[in-house]
Amino acid sequence: MESKNQPLKAPVPDHGTRDTRVLIGISGSMDSLVAAHLLKIQRYNLVAATVVNIWEDPSKEGPTSFSCHLSDEKLKGIQEFCHRLSIPHHVIRLGDEFMEKVVGVWVSDHLQGKSSRHCMSCQELRVSALFQKMKTLGASRLATGHYGKVFQTEPSGKYQVHSSHDHIHDQAGLLSSLPQELLSSLLLPLADLSQKEVMVLAENFGIQDLGSQKKTPECLTLTPELYPFLEKKVPDDLKERMGIHLRSEKPMGLTLIERLSQTIRVNNKFWVVNCQQSAGLKISEPATGYLLMNGMGEIECWVYPKTISTFYVELKESLKLMPGVSVTVMKKKGKNSKVLFTGELRLLPIEEEGDQSVTKVDPTLDF
Q: Concatenated DSSP letters for 243-257?
């Protein structure tokens, strides 16, 4: 699967470079607050930034179902936190980009009857905005409160993402989708910590919770308060092309929920498409791995490469599968495991066999 084992080194500056400016992204979560406090203790030259997503009408706070929404009260709490630690603070407001790359993706995915990858798109957008701010401010490092590890391979110099010490809250799959230029500048103060340990540190540091966020599988959910937004957002010609009755008395939100529920299937075989393989890796033959999906934990699987961006995956047991879900495949089970690839789950086509509908794929023939 790999041409050879290459030594790794963590791209963390040594004590002699601590005067280099570092931008810390603070979302208001306890993770990002503790990460900032740890870097301050280590005497990094810190400057902070917070990304604020703006809906079409900036005068409104946005739907409460959007758990990543940053209220004015929470933003004020972040600014007070930075003031106490003497860290300069900047606010990055994303309007059109957020509507196009996050909300637009959410609407489009639901129209197609699949789980939306808008959370992944949102995280990538936010980190990218922080990276651009880092360069604008003359900083050379970007720090976040994500759980994951970044290593540099030798002699290629490519950066690869590994899992953190917290396999439940690990975000290696998200980080692995970031470009090499960004990974090369990334600092992850929580890489060797679990979230439980972070909460203990928060208590020791006297860090107050700035307001709990809703813990939902998706941060933007189809609730009745969003139905009017959907009716306005989706043009009639697109509804017609997607087979949605224009004169239906049923709210479009309910129509999309029904469409999504109809696509769910129980199976142990599926495709993973639009994959991003870890830098320097080339999976050219069937291999074992561990699948991460929807917080289910690590599930042993077989992966069969089709192309550089498409894999066929088999599990030992069948699971409830939903198209569009983001999945990550790790090289091994447990902490400090290398990300092999991340991608989007796609269900196998259904074939009629007598009175039954079955899915058939023979990877030995298809590949």
A: T--TT-SS-HHHHHH
**Can you give the pTM of this predicted structure?**
0.82
Closest CA to 196 of 167, 171, 227: 167
Strand order in the sheet with 149-153: 8-9, 149-153, 159-162
- Please say whether the beta carbons of 321 and 270 come within 8 A: yes
> Exposed, middle or buried: residue 103 (CB in 10 Å: 0-12, 13-18, 19+)?
buried
- Quick one: which of 353, 29, 12, 52 has its CA closest to 169? 29
Residue at token pair 């030594």: 7
What are the backbone dihedrals phi and psi of residue 102, each rounded to the nearest 5 degrees, phi first?
-115, -60
pLDDT in tens, 226-245: 777 777 777 777 777 777 77
Of 2.40.30.10, 3.10.450.50, 1.20.120.140, 3.30.830.10, the CATH number of 264-366 is 2.40.30.10
